[in-house]
C-alpha cells in the first residue's frame, strides 16, 4: 500500500473525526462559523454524520480500496458545498472548510492514483 496514501488518509480521518465530534457536541467556535454561513445550529449533529461516515469509509479503504475512493469523493462534495454555502452569504472568512477541502481533494487524488 502506498505510504503517501496511508499517511494522508489517516490525517484526513483524524481531521474529520475531530470535525464530526465538534459538530456532535455543538462546539461553540464551530457554531459561530455556521452562524456566519446562515446554517442553523440545530443542523450541526446531522452535518457531523457524513464526516464520521467518510472517516469510517477511509479506514475501510485499507481493505476495500473503492470504498475509500467513494468516501474521499463524498468529502470533496461535502466541503465544496460548505464553501458554496459560505460564499452564498458573502462570508469570505478563511474557515476550516478550505483546508478540509484540500485534504479531501488530495486524498481522492492519491486514492485514484493507486
TrEMBL record:
Alphabetic keyword roster: Membrane, Transmembrane, Transmembrane helix
Signal peptide: none
Entry's localization field: Membrane
Its membrane topology: Multi-pass membrane protein
Keyword set includes Transmembrane: yes
InterPro entries reported in the protein's UniProt record: DoxX
Chain ranges passing through the membrane: 69-89, 95-113
GO CC annotation: membrane
Name the UniProt record assigns to this protein: DoxX family protein
The species this protein was found in: Streptomyces liangshanensis
Amino acid at each position: 500500500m502506498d505510504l503517501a496514501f496511508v499517511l494522508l488518509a489517516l490525517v484526513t480521518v483524524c481531521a474529520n473525526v475531530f470535525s464530526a465530534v465538534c459538530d456532535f457536541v455543538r462546539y461553540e467556535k464551530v457554531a459561530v462559523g455556521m452562524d456566519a454561513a446562515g446554517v442553523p445550529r440545530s443542523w450541526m449533529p446531522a452535518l457531523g454524520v457524513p464526516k464520521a461516515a467518510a472517516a469510517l469509509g477511509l479506514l475501510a479503504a485499507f481493505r476495500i480500496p473503492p470504498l475509500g475512493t467513494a468516501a474521499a469523493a463524498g468529502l470533496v462534495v461535502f466541503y465544496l458545498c460548505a464553501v458554496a454555502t459560505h460564499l452564498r452569504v458573502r462570508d469570505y472568512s478563511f474557515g476550516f472548510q478550505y483546508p478540509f477541502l484540500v485534504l479531501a481533494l488530495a486524498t481522492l487524488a492519491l486514492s485514484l492514483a493507486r
